[in-house]
Amino acid sequence: MLEAFNVGLEVDAPPGSEQESVHLLREVSLRVPQGHLMAIVGPSGCGKTTLLKVIAGIQEQTEGDLKWEDRDLKEEEDLHPGELGYVPQFSVAHDLLTVEECIASSMALRTQLPGTDDFEPKLDHILNVTGLADLAERRVKVLSGGQKRRLGLALELVTNPCLLLCDEVTSGLDPKSETEITELLRVLARENKRRVVINVTHSLASLEAFDSVLVMYQGRLVYHGAPKLLTHYFTVEHAEEVYLRLTQRDAQEWHESWTKKRSYYEAMLFESKPAAEEAAQAETDPDAPHPLAPEELPSMMSQVFTLLHRRWTIFRRDRGQVGLHLAMLIGFPLLVVIFALDGIKPLKQLNQRQETDIVYEMQRQAQHQFDQLQAGGIVSGLIMLQVVLVTLMASNNAAREIAGERLILEREKLGGLSTLAYLISKVLFLGVFVLAQSVWMGVFVDMVVGGLPGDLMVKLMLLVLASAAMTSICLGISALSRTPEKATILSIYLVGFQLPLSGAVLTLPDWLEGAVNPFIAAFWAWSGSLRSMSDTAFYDAVKKVTDTSLVSPELAAFVLLAHVVIGLSMTYVGSKGSQWE
Ligand SMILES: Nc1ncnc2c1ncn2[C@@H]1O[C@H](COP(=O)(O)OP(=O)(O)OP(=O)(O)O)[C@@H](O)[C@H]1O
């Protein structure tokens, strides 16, 4: 039995409002027996989705109590992820996966079935029961609205939930599809004796298939009873007239009226017990296809592997992303080399004279002095260009990574996905890009210019760390942002400020340098790389063209690592926090 006692939800009023807070729900009390299919109806904005979220534990009520099978959901932990199925209004599947892949990945994230003999039969059963068997190979992107809703439902059936909450899975469909999905919900309600299925809907047209109907109005419960008594209660001829009728009294009056009469209507609900009987019958059915106990969650590493495998599949199929990554991987190092073309000659000449006394050479040859200045500018510029382009690639890797799939993440967390598993999968996925982009950039440029001064390994390490730092920070921004657009803009600003604030082009005033540098990854990678040349002739040349103080490679590596840690902490906190809106 699902029970609510005077449940209320009060939230801060929107900015600019005269009140301090608003009540989204007030004094909602209900009892829903098991094996029952209930519809929540009401005009737009009356609190249907809010009530569903409170029952699901996505939003916690500020007043009253909720009970499931005599467990107080406020006192004890929320429902076990395997006990709860929540189908949101929006699509919770990746566009580039097929229907079968989506269900299989949901199963792998939420159950221990993959690898067992039960996996295939269960997958087939879910495809069949939701009417998706013929669409198993079709990608989500091309599914119709109704098919996406069936898929949303299918993703929740992998665990045999006993509380299945559906937000508008029947809305906006043609009458035939609406009837089919309602019938499916009814079958699901009967399939498991412990199960309660609740569906939010706008439609008042086909409520007969439900065991009960709950009407919400302005955050209040104003009716909960059998569908056939709805017209009687509201004294209207057709159910479709109920919304108009509601406007004739205010919500408080409707609620008071309901409080007086509810025992009569609820008693009728419990007395008829058609649902419980049908459920008992379904349970004894010898053809019942699978056990109905909730599934156990898989291990964290198993979730990491599933997420990683899924992410690579999506990446491989996203031709635009693959093309962009390849273009940057090949194009950016070439760009650096093109800028260096004019300077390669003095660079090589200076390279050949490294063994000689550079000061003596300078005094002796005016030409050499000119070469040295030019070479210093080229070396500093090349390193900075490498670093900035690597950070640009890093921001492109990470900016949309979490914000772009936020609602899917929220749904999967509710289904038992570990935030740490999610974070590790992102680190492993993006780590490949960080290594490929920065190592290739460093090695390619070094080869073409005939060897930049200093230890190649130190410069490569700093490039990798600069890329890792920017990737982590942008991933953190992505996890904390409400939309992918916001995350992208913030990440672009961050990269845009790297060059002017790095001190490589213009020297910042001392007081500003100390305040800004800690935040500029490009400064540390550039500065540490230049300092790593301190035992070569180039260091003097580089010092001549920059007044910015240069730091040791060790300090640079330490600060960049700190950026990585901060970025990953932001990512963890941002991913763990709830962002359903
Ligand atoms: N976090 C929030 N802060 C402030 N107001 C909110 C919040 N969440 C929802 N609301 C408001 O609460 C009201 C009820 O929202 P809800 O989404 O539950 O309505 P609904 O009945 O499901 O509507 P619809 O049928 O249009 O989906 C709306 O006016 C909405 O703007």
From TrEMBL:
Keywords associated with the record: ATP-binding, Membrane, Nucleotide-binding, Transmembrane, Transmembrane helix, Transport
Highest taxon listed in the record's lineage: Bacteria
All copies of domain ABC transporter, residue ranges: 2-243
Source species of the chain: Prosthecobacter algae
Organism lineage string: Bacteria, Pseudomonadati, Verrucomicrobiota, Verrucomicrobiia, Verrucomicrobiales
Matches recorded under PANTHER family: ABC TRANSPORTER G FAMILY MEMBER 28, PROTEIN SCARLET
Membrane topology: Multi-pass membrane protein
Subcellular location as annotated: Membrane
Protein name (database record): ABC transporter domain-containing protein
Positions of transmembrane segments: 322-341, 378-399, 420-440, 460-480, 487-508, 555-574
Pfam families cross-referenced by the UniProt entry: ABC2_membrane, ABC_tran
InterPro entries noted in UniProt: AAA+_ATPase, ABC2_TM, ABC_transporter-like_ATP-bd, ABC_transporter-like_CS, ABCG_transporters, P-loop_NTPase
Main location: membrane
